Amino acid sequence: MSSSPSVQPGDVLAGKYRVERVLGAGGMGYVVAARHLQLDQMVAMKFLRKSGAENTEAGTRFLREAKAVVKLRNEHVAKVYDVGTLDGGEPYIVMEYLEGCDLAALAKQRHSIPASEAAEYVMQACEALAEAHALGIVHRDIKLANLFITRGPAGGPLVKVLDFGISKTNPFGESEHEMTRTSSMLGSPRFMSPEQMRDPRAVDGRTDVWSLGVVLYRLVAGRPPFEADTLGRLLTMVMHEQEAPLSSVRGDLPPGFDQVVARCLQKDPTTRFSTVAELAYALVPFTVDPARARSIADRISAVQSLPMLPPITADNSGPLPVASSRVSAPPGVADTGTASPWTGTHGGARPKSPATTIALGVALAAILVGAGIFAKVRDDRQQASARAIAAAKAIQAPHPAATLTPAPAVPGVEAAPSTVATILGASPMTPPPPVTGVPTVEPAPTARRAPVTGPPRTKTATTRPASAPVTPKNESGIPDTRD
């Protein structure tokens, strides 16, 4: 069988993809760079050779990659645009075209890199795997060659996770027992966990955590944690022997970094980091920008804690489902033997970032100030209302007899009785008896008057001096008050 691809530069595939060059080829397939004729967009087309397509298991895994990736929306996963089959029977996947290099080429060129740079790359891979694990997808083939470094929108390094072809993808209804034979070797042995070597069908997300630990070890130490001349010897080392401590291979590591890697490489999955979120939190202090890395770790933890929500459609009725706010707590670096910058344990609440704490403090202060103002206004209104009611009662209450003071005597005028019964007990329809020597005011004729809308007027009694002359009456009997 010829190893050369069946498509050549210049070929137009599916009526819209023109092949420009071959990017790489292997025993089962190859990848070419092509241009979409209508959109003028570069894409990568991954092909499975016809001989591989005739293998039912290989063909199913090839399409499984497209099914897995199309469900992932994270920016750290290479996007899938289309699938199809050539006239010759070769299936293909149209994927996002990436410019850059994978970590295998980077490690070969630089031999080893600083721990902070390696932590940055693995943190981004954790973000892609967090979404995959939340959907029940286990990659099972994390290695240097499947972590591709390109440039992000801001120009910084952006890691893309490739090749979900052998992923364990339960959400698609496929029988894992039928898809995977126990005798088949899935993944790259140097990066495989002990449990995946024993039974690749029984693994979970912790097998990817092991592989990320191998990636960290290889990038920083310049060699993998387990090396052997034969596959059998390599399997024995991975399953039964302990790797050399990373600090013994490279002595300029930041304190605690080697313990993070050692925990990833625990042979018992229960003693490893249980999720990629825990691994991300442990790597935060060793990154180039811990504050930014902490926000990434928070995002990873939130993604892994969200339940699988139903799709949102136009005909959905009722409120949208609210995701649970409960997230897994960061383990801190205390789990690796170093001082934890966040304190607390796995069972505690996830610590908040400084910006979040400040925002919550400002919001709480605003609430307290508003509550104080509201209470002050309420008390002022209550006091004003109480004063108004007291004033009204004071106006309406009768004056006690003890407070009545007899009017001063007027020479030549007989004083009227000053008893309360005389003043208050007389009928309002019966005028008081005339007083000798004082002009009598005749009652005005009864007439209907318009109701007074304003407050009642109070008449002020004035005391006339004793020597004042008596005002004569006019013909109508009304005293003449004109000057």
What does this structure look like?
There is one protein chain. The strands form three sheets. Strands 1-2-3-4-6-5 form a six-stranded antiparallel sheet. Strands 7-9-10 form a three-stranded antiparallel sheet. Strands 8-11 form a two-stranded antiparallel sheet. It is 34% helix and 11% strand. Helix 4 (115-134) runs antiparallel to helix 11 (276-283) and helix 7 packs across helix 10 (257-264). It has helices at residues 50-53, 56-70, 103-110, 115-134, 176-179, 194-198, 206-221, 231-240, 246-249, 257-264, 276-283, 290-305, 354-396, 420-424; strands at residues 12-13, 17-25, 29-36, 41-48, 80-85, 91-96, 101-102, 137-138, 147-151, 157-161, 168-169. The protein contains 14 helices and eleven strands. The chain is of the alpha+beta class. Among the domains are: 12-96, 2-Layer Sandwich (Phosphorylase Kinase, domain 1); 101-170 and 187-309 and 325-361, Transferase(Phosphotransferase) domain 1 (Transferase(Phosphotransferase), domain 1, Orthogonal Bundle), CATH 1.10.510.10.
Which features characterize this protein?
single chain; about 475 residues; alpha+beta; Phosphorylase Kinase, domain 1; Transferase(Phosphotransferase), domain 1; six-stranded antiparallel beta sheet; three-stranded antiparallel beta sheet; 14 helices; about 10% strand
Gyration radius, rounded: 46 Å
Largest sheet: 6 strands, antiparallel
Can you give the helix content as a percent range?
A: 25-40%
**How many helices does DSSP assign?**
14
CATH class of the domain at 101-170 and 187-309 and 325-361: Mainly Alpha
What's the architecture of the domain at 101-170 and 187-309 and 325-361 in CATH terms? Orthogonal Bundle
Total beta strand runs: 11
Strand content: 5-15%
- What is the third-level CATH name, the topology of the domain at 101-170 and 187-309 and 325-361? Transferase(Phosphotransferase), domain 1
Give the neighbour order of strands across the main sheet. Answer: 1-2-3-4-6-5
Given as residue ranges, the uncertain stretches (5+ residues, pLDDT < 50) are 170-184, 317-351, 418-428, 458-468
N/C terminus separation: 138 Å
Mean pLDDT metric: 74
